[in-house]
From TrEMBL:
GO terms for biological process, alphabetical: protein folding; response to stress
Stored InterPro entries: CS_dom, HSP20-like_chaperone, NudC_fam
UniProt cross-references to PROSITE patterns, sorted A to Z: CS
The protein's name: CS domain-containing protein
Length: 165
């Protein structure tokens, strides 16, 4: 049932008419997908992930991306892989449940409607995580959707809710 609430499609960051990367998110992570240029040996690509910054490119050249992240990530569980001419970067959110409007600060932000849809999908994903016997894939919100990170307490790293006092 949880897979029904997975991102249905990725978002594209377009700059000057060129696709820079695609991305999606879950409660716990943000995934970036960068199409690699052809005819470059895979061993020349690099990616450096800091808690608030990402840099990637081809060794010996200026970085393709060198930007601050929208929110901090856990560097010990963030990583990158090369798969079928695509660099896949997995950024583990430091604040589980936080809705990101873009992986890169100030670049390619989702419009308010798309951000609202993401927040609603993440809230349903949280409901599914906390109530595994129920199917929330067809649920809808009327009115404003609560923040999936802070609704009725904060999500802990173990998946249980910590109630704020």
């Amino acid at each position: 049932m949880a897979e029904k609430l997975a991102p249905e499609k990725s978002h594209s960051f377009i700059h000057n008419g060129q696709k820079v990367f695609d991305w999606d998110q879950t409660l716990e992570e943000v995934n970036m997908y960068i199409t690699l240029p052809p005819n470059v040996p895979k061993k020349l690509f690099y990616c450096k992930i800091d808690s608030k910054h990402v840099e990637l490119g081809i060794k010996g050249n200026p970085p393709y991306l060198n930007h601050d992240l929208t929110s901090p990530v856990k560097t010990d569980s963030s990583f990158w892989t090369l798969e079928d001419d695509v660099m896949h970067i997995t950024l583990q959110k430091r604040d589980k449940g936080q809705t990101w409007s873009s992986p890169i600060m100030g670049q390619g932000q989702l419009d308010p409607y798309a951000t609202d849809l993401e927040q609603k999908r993440l809230m349903l994903e949280r409901f599914q995580m906390e109530n595994p016997g129920f199917d929330f894939s067809q649920a809808q919100f009327s009115g404003n959707c609560p923040d999936p990170r802070t609704f009725m307490g904060v999500i802990s790293v173990y998946g249980f809710v910590e109630v704020k006092s």
